Automatic annotation (TrEMBL):
<dbReference type="GO" id="GO:0005829">
    <property type="term" value="C:cytosol"/>
</dbReference>
<keyword id="KW-1005">Bacterial flagellum biogenesis</keyword>
<dbReference type="GO" id="GO:0071973">
    <property type="term" value="P:bacterial-type flagellum-dependent cell motility"/>
</dbReference>
<dbReference type="InterPro" id="IPR003713">
    <property type="entry name" value="FliS"/>
</dbReference>
<protein>
    <recommendedName>
        <fullName>Flagellar protein FliS</fullName>
    </recommendedName>
</protein>
<comment type="similarity">
    <text>Belongs to the FliS family.</text>
</comment>
<dbReference type="GO" id="GO:0044780">
    <property type="term" value="P:bacterial-type flagellum assembly"/>
</dbReference>
<keyword id="KW-0963">Cytoplasm</keyword>
<keyword id="KW-0143">Chaperone</keyword>
<dbReference type="InterPro" id="IPR036584">
    <property type="entry name" value="FliS_sf"/>
</dbReference>
<dbReference type="Pfam" id="PF02561">
    <property type="entry name" value="FliS"/>
</dbReference>
Amino acid sequence: MIDAKTQQPASSAGAASAAYRSATVTVAPTTAIVMALDRVLLNLKRTIAATEAKRFDEAFNLTSHSTQILRGLAHHIDVAKGGAMAERLQKTYHANIMAMLLAMGKPDAVRRYQKLAEGLAELRDAWAQIAKIPPLAARPNASDITGTPTSTAA
C-alpha cells in the first residue's frame, strides 16, 4: 500500500488516485465516491462563476482538478469484477472528462458546465442512495454545490 502522505504521485491521475485511496481509509468507498463527486460539482459551480467573470485561468484550474478527480474514480473501477455496468460507469466518467475539457473556451461554456453539473448531480445521488446519504435535493445548501436551485417538494 502506498502512503499518500509520504509519496508524491507522478501524474495528476496518480494524485487523484492517491486522494481516493486516502479517503477510503477513513470512510466507506461509496461515501468517498459521493464526496469526490460533491467536489466536482462544487468545482463546476466555481468554474461557471469564473467563466462568467472571464477568469479563464481559474476556470481552467478548476476544470483540471475536476477531471483529475473523475480520472481517479474511473481508474478505481474493477471492470473484471463489475462487468458491463463497470464499463459503462468508466465510460461515463471519461465522457464527462472530455465534455469538461471541450467546454473550455466555447461561447456556450456556461451552459455546457451547467448541463454537466446536472448529469453529475444525478450520478452523485445514485451513489448517495447506495451509501445511504441524502440526495442533493434534501440538503439545505444543495444549490451551493450544483449552482442551480433545488426543490424539496416531491
